[in-house]
Amino acid sequence: MIRVIDRVDDPRIAAYAHVGDPAWLRERGLFVAEGRLVVDRLIEGARFDIVSLLLTPAAFDALRDRLTAVSTDVFVAAQAILNGITGFNFHRGCLALARRGPESSWTLADTKLAVALEGVGNPDNVGGVFRSAAALGADAILLDPSSGDPFYRKAIRTSMGAVLQVPFARLARWPEDVIELRGAGLTLVGLAPRGSITIDEFAAHQSESGRFIVLAGSEGHGLSNAALKACDALVRIPIAEEYDSLNVVVAVSIALHRLRRHRF
Predict the structure, then answer these.
(1) Which of 27, 1, 25, 26 shows the shortest CA–CA distance to 15?
(2) What is the C-alpha separation between 127 and 160, in angstroms, rounded?
(3) For the whole model, what pTM was predicted?
(4) What structural domains does the chain harbor?
(5) pLDDT profile of the chain (264 residues), mean per 10
(6) Which residues lie closer than 8 Å to 11 by C-beta, 6 or more apart?
(7) Dist CA 50 CA 33 (whole Å)
(8) Is 28 strand, coil or helix?
């Protein structure tokens, strides 16, 4: 249903006053998608129940064809009304509220190449890893209990909607749950600046049928000792001597590229 909104205080869009409040959204089982590309991927993926959309006329026109697949309220309002109700102007005139659904959308049987994150709390990094995973063919992302929420608004935005496409799961026991994946034939590959072998050397010695989980930790501390001990191999990415590490998104991207290039 297309509904035109001409007042900031219209009760039908009251929920959009909370799109910048992650606690409010989480308590109600919601997340917010912002920007035309992200909202387009939300609709296209059809994985999440869309509660409603709030669009400027320009965004409505851009998404008009895609909106035929939406069976919920579509509110259309001027940019000033969107800014007034949300309090920020990052959304580019395009917002959607959707239900989070279960945190696990991951299927072990379909996993040949995945990423596991430990202690990665920054939403830009979480979103960036999802974006790289989608672009470089990773089948899933696994998160330890302390890593950031993929449904956080900034993580979804930074991922360019990849959070809505790449399967992921939150592992309750870390690193025990990821260690158990060895039994399913997955090799645990830890990224460590002092790894005993380079990622290229490691990839060159793997069979095309190999299945891998790339483990990466926070930029400040890297992988914990427990996670390092759990890995089947510790690999490094050679960098200039005057630098001690790479951003976690960059490191994961390089590792995925090398493993994918070897296999395909």
Answers:
(1) 25
(2) 8
(3) 0.93
(4) 2-99 (3.30.1330.30), 108-263 (3.40.1280.10)
(5) 94 96 96 95 92 96 93 95 86 92 76 96 97 96 96 95 94 95 94 93 89 92 94 95 90 95 60
(6) none
(7) 10
(8) coil
